[in-house]
Structures are given as C-alpha cells and as structure tokens.
Amino acid sequence: MQPILKIFVPVLASIVAYYLFRTIRWGLSRIPSPLSLPGPPNPGWFFGHQKEIWSKSTPLGEPTLMDEWHEMYGPTFKAGGFFGGYRIYSMDIKVVQHIMRNDDIYLKPPVMRNLLNMILGEGTGVIVAEGAQHRLQRKAMNPAFGPSQIREFTKTFFHKSIEMRDIWKAQIANEGVGEIDPVEWLSKVTVDIIGLTGFNYHLNALNDGQTNALNEAFKTMFHSSGWDSPWMPLIAALPKSIQSIIKTLALACGVDTAMKSSVDCIQRSCRQLLMENKAQLVATGEKDIGSGSRNLLSLLLKSNMSPDTPAHARMSDADVMAQIPTFLIAGHDTTSLATNWALLELSLHQDIQAKLQEELLSVPTATPSMDELNGLPLLDGFVRETLRLHSPITTLGRIAVQDDIIPLAHPFTDSDGTVHDKLPVRKGQLIHLTLHQVNTDKSLWGPHADRFRPDRWLNLPDSARTIPGAYSNTLSFWGGSHGCMGWRFTSIEMKVLIFVLLRSFHFELAVQKDELMVLKMASIWQRPSLKSEPLQTRLPLVVKLLKNE
User: Which residues cross the membrane (predicted)?
Assistant: First the structure.
C-alpha cells in the first residue's frame, strides 16, 4: 500500500477536500467536541495527534506516549483527531465496564470495520460483525473454541512446535549455540498451526521449499499493506465509493497489483476450502467429520448446517468464508507476538528462566495434555504475566451510536475548575480504551504493576479482580459479549511453544538491552524492535542447546 500512498496523495487530498466540503458542517453539528477534558494541545488540524499515535517507537522499559499522557492528564483525557476533531482516551475501570456492558451503544468504528473488510472481502467476519449478526456468529462458533476442542488441538500445537524446535537445533548443531531471531519463525509456526486447526490446510510456512500460494498471498498482503502508515485510517474513513476510485486508479497505473492479487488469491482459496469442507460434511451425513478434519471451519459448518439450526439463524456462505482469513489474522499474529515477548522476558530475567526451566524439565512426558500444562503453576503464571504486560491489543476503539452518560471511577477537573464524576457522550463520539494502561494500572495491580512478576498470580490483589476481562482479569482479550473467543487457543498454544523450546534451549539477548525498542503499529499492536532498525520487528537472541539435549 505504501506506493499508492505516495502516488495518490494529491488525488486523495482532493477527494478529502470535496468530501469535507459536503459533510463537515453536518458532522460538526451532529458531533460536538467532548467536554473540556484535559489533554495535550492539538498539533494540527489535519492529523491531530493521530499521526503520532498511529506509529511510534519507544525504548523498552520507558513510558509510552499513552503512559505519559495518562500521567499528565489523568485516566480520561482528549487528544486531537482528524480535521480538528477530538477523541476521548480512557483507562478508567468504570468507563471500561460501562462500554463493555453496553455494546449495543458502543460499536466498532467504521474505520476499523473498513480496514478489516479490505482483507475479509464481501462476507462479515466475527471480528467485524455487530448486533444480531455478531450474536448469531458467536453462537455458531463458540463450540469450536471450547475446552474439548482445544484439548484436541494441543496435539497439533506440539507437532508443529517440535518441528520448529528441530529446525533450530539443526541451525546451531555444530557449535551448540547460535544467534536466532524468533520473530519470523514464530510467525511461520503459528501460521502452520492455524492452517491445520482452522481448516485442515497445510500452509507449510516452516518449510520454505514447500510453501504454497495461500501462504505467499498472506505474506505479501501483510508486508505491502502499510498498516503502520498514518494515511491508513484516513483512507479507511472515506466512503467505500471513494476507496474504490482510489483502488481503481492505483491498479490502472500498475500500483499495488501485488496486494490485489494476494487478496484475490485468498478469496479463491477461502471459497475452495469452504466447498471442500461442506462436501466432506455432507458425505459423512453430518454425523462424523473425522479425526483428521476436526477443525474450526468444519465445526462451524456442522453447527451451521445442523437440522437443529433454524434457517434464520444460519450464517451465509460469504460470512462463513470470511471466518477463514479471520482465523488466520487473529489466530497467528496474537500468539506469535506474545511468544516473542515471552522469549524476551526470559532473556531479561535469567532467574525466572531457570525456575521455569526446572519445572518444565521435571515433566515426565515430552507432550503433556492441555490439563497437564494447565497444572504447571510457574508456566501458567508466566503466560498470564506475559499477556498482561504485553497485551496483543493495546487500544480498543468504540463509537457511540446514541447520546449517553458514562460513570467515572476517577473524576476529572475541566478547564473551568469544575469536577465531573460522569462523562456525557454525544452520538458519534469516538472513545479509545487504553487496555495496556488498564493492565498496568497501579491502583488495580499494586506499586509494581509495570514490572514483570509472574508470581503475582499466586496472590492477585482484590482490586485487579474487578477487571471484567475474558482471560485472567486482564483486558488482553477484551471481554463481555465481544471478548475474543480464541483466548484459550492462544494461551494453550503459547504454553506448548514455551514448553517445547525451554526444555531444549537457553535464551539470552544478542544485543544490549538499551538497543531494544517497542514498535507501535497501527496504534494498537506492540512489537519488539531495535534502535538500528526502528521500523522492523526484530528480536535477535543467543540460543544455546541444553546439555541434556
């Protein structure tokens, strides 16, 4: 997407100007500025603070931009949006609880839905759907993410984790030690896992010599999509008709053809997978989908095609098909990122690595069950702490579809000196919940909330138990009716990866700690990076083979 952004900036600017001319007066009359909330001064009318928020790197261990603003302006503040508007940012626990409970009032912003639809195509994936459509999809998909199914998937988690471990062993076999950057490898192994568990498809990402078109299409799409560009939310905010004009002009000039080819390939593959799984399900009489095909897509189709499911409650083929890229996007990036952070924390905290390694090596089997993994207290606390401190999603945006009043746990003082314990919100107001800051709020987690301490899970503060998260009293997977269904999938997959790797290797940093950066992408994802390569996801580690290996 980056070339199109450079070539069509003048075209885009003209379209935006025209679009604003028609709508800005209407928009401003319907969406007034928030109350006189505290906040940083707006640096400019066009981008506001969004360019800074969208993509910014921070040295590891230092306060992020949101940390600094919350410290300066309080748990709830305003920051500049596009075209002179303002957005509300909050880490207030009552704001979180209110928005989570009232998900019929606070919906995903059109910008977010448009960005996701660029990949998902015509159908509506569960991470895009709202209202009755979302409830229908969750009801159909919930069984696929239950304990019994994840218990079955654990075998695949181990199979692929061991395959990656053996590749690493071969790389350092001569010296018994070597430098490995796990970023690409963890992305590959989690892609392979979601391919098999999601729709029984061998993506072969770990085997470069046997890769396939679908895997290559996803790689191209993510590498060329320009998610870290501040222009992306602006393009996504435009009407679909204008987005279509931009895409048409780009393709006519030979720009971004790789992106279109990738999306087309993904859509073709998804359609084929849907047809194959439906045919297999029909052939087995909807009774036995076979041990080799008990995947998320088959389970979803079985539920959707069941005679017990009334016609009005069934998902369309387009919506079922949209779940395939949804599985791939949500299913691999979340786990791979979290496991990178886990390996970083192990490298930084050698004492924790030693204790955890001792626990894992004491397990008599190389492939324990899901229940056996969950019974390892140090591993459980380590995974919970990694996901708390390095939340896959750091910020969650919602837009109010009607006027509302939100209660506040922490009142704010406006510019006139008046104290407010409630926040009036007008229809159309954008609110961003800073999930990472809730996960590290000292008023909830104690004075060492910003430190990596897995043992905190042995005696969790009562205040932290008020966090209404889907997983482990954190907001790492959000919560409520829109909470991520895949939290169990991710946590067990992480445990398997760490179990396999830590029983074979010892990890240390290959660079000085002060060289490490936290790369913020698309305003919500955190990735490890280096000062010398600030725009790349990097984590060079020294990997040593254990003596027992």
Answer: 7-28
